[in-house]
Each structure stands twice: as structure tokens, then as C-alpha cells.
Amino acid sequence: MEESNLRIIVSSLFMILCMFITLSIVAPQAEARAFFVFGDSLVDNGNNNYLATTARADSYPYGIDSANHRASGRFSNGLNIPDLISEKIGSEATLPYLSPELNGEKLLVGANFASAGIGILNDTGIQFINIIRITNQLLYFKEYQQRVSALIGEKQTQDLVNQALVLITLGGNDFVNNYYLVPFSARSREFNLPNYVVFLISEYRKILVNLYELGARRVLVTGTGPLGCVPAELAMHSRNGECGADLQQAVNLFNPQLVQLLNQLNTEIGSHVFISANAFAMHLDFVNDPQAYGFVTSKVACCGQGAYNGIGLCTPASNLCPNRDLFAFWDAFHPSERANRLIVDKFMTGSTQYMNPINLTTIIALDSTT
Q1: Catalytic residue among 40, 41, 76, 298, which?
Q2: Catalytic (active site) residue 69
Q3: What biological processes does GO assign it (predicted)?
Q4: 44, 174, 285, 331: which is the annotated catalytic residue?
Q5: 334 is catalytic
Q6: 132-160, pLDDT tens digit by residue?
Q7: Mean pLDDT across 176-185
Q8: pTM as predicted
Q9: How many separate domains does the chain show?
């Protein structure tokens, strides 16, 4: 009897061991989904390093808290939003599309096409001269697919793109570096603010439809943050630290219409392709109550000069805070890495107040079953 039981136990252990070995062999073959990034400096991870432009973050103290403590072209003291999303979905960080390292197997991870300074409109950021307009980012995406097709075939490339996660961040520069760049700018003479926003949304629609036609099926679209509350705007327009009224008004017109556009597109397509990420609410949480999130300030930038450290660029000559984790803003416009982490946490698990209609964790769970 004891011998019989021993055989059953040994046999069971052997089966469990075989299952474990099988799983350990299969698991590494399950690749993380590809990730593609489009947009401006909030998500650029180094494309502008390869361009003759002033819109770049390739020198100290940018990247001071990164693994190698070197500037990479990210407008951050460390990691930016795409890096942190890659972490969450279990993928290595995407490379800038212009990087010579982006070839072979690296292409299958995805690519970052973003370029600091750009907007929805092609005349946004013209002062930066040589940047990758959104129309060119989409052309690069098409070129990317041709490169991958040569590597793994057309059908597999289509599957890779259809199953990928896509992030697009546009709009802020269309106000800061276009409509409100100078008094009586060309666009402000052409449009009053409400009509300008309607124009922006109509142009954004074309971009998103193009992205869908190029195969994107899961697209996170961020609205603009509270632009009037960034240190640069406080330095120029604030007397007592209050947010700039004009830019806040612009954002409050733009974001709801963007959400409406995404809902319309999803209805037309018949699927939740476009996911709205409420960057305004995500930022405003720690702008309004920085201490609740462990920050000492959401008004003063860590790196800069002048009022609120909001004047000019972050350079080796700038004031630099000793502990970047205590500052919501890294420079005059961009969140610190720690603030970016809080934002990405909302991407992952945020309620419909932040992510509409579903958050990224739900997307991953849904997509894993199809």
C-alpha cells in the first residue's frame, strides 16, 4: 500500500515538473506587444538629437537621474511617460525612430516618432526650424512598416501593428508655441479662440483617421495638461502664483472637444480604438495639492532661472534642485520623472475620470483574451 502511494506521489511530482518545464520554455516566447509613440516633447525620447534644431534636451542636467546620468534627449531628469508605459507593459523602451540602433530585432519592440516642438498644425513650432511635423511622423510610421515587412513579412507586420499599443500627445504647442507665442500671432489674427479650437480638432481628426488607416487599433490620446499652470507661464503671466487665465481657457475648450472627437471616431469605427487620457486632471491633482503627492512645490521648476525657475531653458548654468523627487516640474514646461510616474499610474488604473472609456490595465486584460 505504501509503495503504491509512493508511486502515485512520484508520478504526480513528475507530471508537475514536466508542466513547469513546458511553461518555462513557452513563457519567454510570449513577446510583449509593440509600442509606438507620436507627439511632442512630453514623449520625445531623443529624435531631436539627430536634427539641427534648438528644441533638444541632449545636455546636462537633463537625464541627471537616469541610469547612466546622461542626457538622452528626453525632456526629463530621468524617464518620461513612454519609458514608464513600456515598464508597465513588460517591454523594453522603444528607440527613437532616427536612432541608428533601431534595426533588426529592435524594430519589433516598436518605435518612438515624437519630436519636441511640434503640434497638430504644421506651422506650430516653426521657430524650432527642423523638427518632425506630425505629418512626417506618420510618413515615418509607414516607412517603419515597410522596413519590418522586409524583416518578418507583410502579414506578420500587419498583425504586429494591429496588436500594438499607440500613444499620441499633441495640442499643447499649438497654444504655447503658436496661438499665444507672441501678441497678435498669425493664428490669433485669423481665428478667435473658440474657432481656433474647432479648427485644431478638425485637423486632429485627420491625423487620427490617418493613424487608424495605418493600422493602429489601440491608441491612447492625451489631452493637454493645465498649460496656464506650468512654471514658464507663471513666470510670464502670474502675480501671485495663480494659473494663466488665457491658456486655462484654451485648455478647457480643447479637451472636452477632443474627448467628443474620440467618442465620435469610436462610434464610426464600432470599436474602442481611441482611449482618452485626461492629462489635465492627472496634472491638476498635484498642481492643486502638491503636498498630498509628496511634492514641496508644483509652481517652481527644479531646473531653470528667474521667477519660479520658469525663464529660459534648463542649462548647466541654471538653478538645480538637489532632490528632483520633491518637485512636480522638472523644467519650465515638463514634469519630473516622479510626476510622470504618478501620471502613468493613472494611465494604468485610473477611473473614468482619468481614462475613458477604459484604463490601460483593462485594455491589456481584454486584449490578452482575444
Answers
A1: 41
A2: no
A3: lipid catabolic process
A4: 331
A5: yes
A6: 999 999 999 999 999 999 999 999 999 99
A7: 96
A8: 0.91
A9: 1
